Amino acid sequence: MAFDLEVKRIYEPPASDDGQRVLVDRVWPRGVSKKDAALTLWLKDIAPSDELRKWFGHEPARWAEFQKRYRAELDGNGEAVAQLRGLLGDGKVTLLYGAHDEAHNNAVALAGYLRAG
C-alpha cells in the first residue's frame, strides 16, 4: 500500500504540506506548547514502552536491536497501529518526535515498520 508519510522533529515549525501531524512520543517534548505543535493527534500508545525507550537510550549501537524489539511491540499493539494506518488512508501524515537524533528514534523506526507493511 502506497501512502504519503514524513518524519520530522516537533521543534521544526509546522508546514502547510505536513498533512495530519501525529506526535508518536510517550512523553510530551520539552519547550513545545500544545498550540505551537499544531497536532492532529498525540498517539502516545504507539510509542515504545518505557522499558524499551530507557534501554535504547538513543545509543546508535543499539539501533538494530531497538528496531527489532519495537517492531515486536508494534505487532502486539494492533489498535494504535490500526488508528495510524487509518489516518494514512486519509492522506499525508507527518510523524513527529522530540529526540535530538534524527536518524535513530522511534518515529523513524515506526515509519519503517509502516512502510514494510
From TrEMBL:
Q: What is this protein called?
A: DUF488 domain-containing protein
Spell out the Pfam families in the cross-references.
DUF488-N3i
